[in-house]
Amino acid sequence: MVKVSDGDALRKEIGCTMFQMVPVHTQMPACPLVEVWLDEEGLLNGGDLNRTATQYFSPVNAGEFHGNVVIAAPGVVP
């Protein structure tokens, strides 16, 4: 687990210049909501499809994730 305390650290972990957070409802009772931090321009920049994140979250998010993602409980990333 990597401690991310600012935008520069998050950009480094994701490997991007611009990022966004997508709140995603899960089917896990212990953690019904997570924050998925991702490359905001991943699809536009031709980033590889993140199959794991897309398969796991697509039933509830109805979208694709490209590039690296950081998944966190709400409020963990300031």
Order of helices and strands: HEEHE
Strand content: 15-25%
Q: Report strand order across the widest sheet.
A: 1-2-3
Helix amount: 10-25%
Distance N to C terminus: 16 Å
The main β sheet shows up as: 3 strands, antiparallel
Q: Which properties best describe this structure?
A:
single chain, 78 residues, alpha+beta, 3-stranded antiparallel sheet
SSE inventory with pairings:
Layout: H1 7-14, E1 19-25, E2 33-39, H2 51-61, E3 69-72
Antiparallel strand pairs: 1-2, 2-3
Write a brief caption for the model.
This protein has 78 residues and is α+β, with helices and mostly antiparallel strands. It is built from 2 helices and 3 strands.
How would you sum up this structure, described in words?
With 78 residues, this protein is α+β, with helices and mostly antiparallel strands. It has one domain. It has helices at residues 7-14, 51-61, and strands spanning 19-25, 33-39, 69-72. A 3-stranded antiparallel sheet has the order 1-2-3, sandwiched between helices. Strand 1 and strand 2 (33-39) form a beta hairpin. The radius of gyration is 12 Å and the shape is flat. The model has no long low-confidence stretch (mean pLDDT 81).
